[in-house]
Automatic annotation (TrEMBL):
<dbReference type="InterPro" id="IPR036291">
    <property type="entry name" value="NAD(P)-bd_dom_sf"/>
</dbReference>
<protein>
    <recommendedName>
        <fullName>NAD(P)-binding protein</fullName>
    </recommendedName>
</protein>
<feature type="coiled-coil region">
    <location>
        <begin position="52"/>
        <end position="102"/>
    </location>
</feature>
<keyword id="KW-0175">Coiled coil</keyword>
<keyword id="KW-0560">Oxidoreductase</keyword>
<dbReference type="InterPro" id="IPR002347">
    <property type="entry name" value="SDR_fam"/>
</dbReference>
<dbReference type="Pfam" id="PF00106">
    <property type="entry name" value="adh_short"/>
</dbReference>
Amino acid sequence: MAHLITGNKFDPNKDIPDLSGKVYVVTGGTAGIGFGITAHLLQHNASKIILLSQKEEHAEEAEEELKKYGDNSRVHWVQCDLKDLKQTNEVAKQLKSEQQIDGLICNAGEGVGKYNVTLDGLDSHFQVNHLSQMLLTLTLLPNLQSKPHSRLVLQSSDLHRAALSSTTFTSVDEINTDLGPNSLYARTKLAQILFVRALVRRMENNEPGFQSPKYNGPWINATHPGGVNTDQQEQAVEAYGTKGKLGVKAVRPFLKDPVDEGCRPALFAATSEDVAKEGIQGQYIVPDRKVTEPSKQARGEELGENLWRLSEQILQEKLGSLPYKQGR
């Protein structure tokens, strides 16, 4: 679905409306695509932007660079290691006290990298790209529900189409199986779309804890940024060695700039008034603003429910109790 007038074009310099009075939370907002998202939110007068990231040096660099885009005193950094569920939970509860959240943009993610296990004993791709951001999302869902036409954006990838057909999301042992860098990454990008669709189902079914006035938001969508030049390519080099280095060298000239282009689908989903006007809900958006059909796997309701159940099971085991109401 593309707008009849603008087609598939969304220029963040011109097409983002005035965001005065709005508050956004951006994971991974200090570098790469996340920095591009933050820069344009600031450029268009967002009143407060809360950045979640792990590395303080990235936050300091971002703070200085953001002066080019507006008053960087409106940007607030919170240290959050998504590889640590307890810390992520504390940050989520801290953010829950915010009087207003107009948009949560879950952009942080591990790239095509080596298999690693987190402090919580889980595959780091799965925990960072999906589980920790599911925790943030569901903790902050009441905040989003209280603001008309609020937005939730999950940064997925077209590599979700490369997820193994054997994926079932039924056990921790499955999650902690080293599938190789590409398949580990693809599985989490599949998970993000499945999570978006499962969350929207719960809202549409008016389930306890998920009730939200119809056509009032939050508007929840997954996005694909396209091929973007970020430090994620270095993870591929580390994972694949010489082969990875040659591959990255070959494709890098064709990759998009994260500030000029790589952030467009996420910013469209997070800010454009057309999302509400056109009722874009539970969809998959590719550059710049085209709604397209994800893979058959990503449309699988049973697979999505498996993922939801397993994710909640893990969160309960690791945290003791869930900081949000269960819908099923």
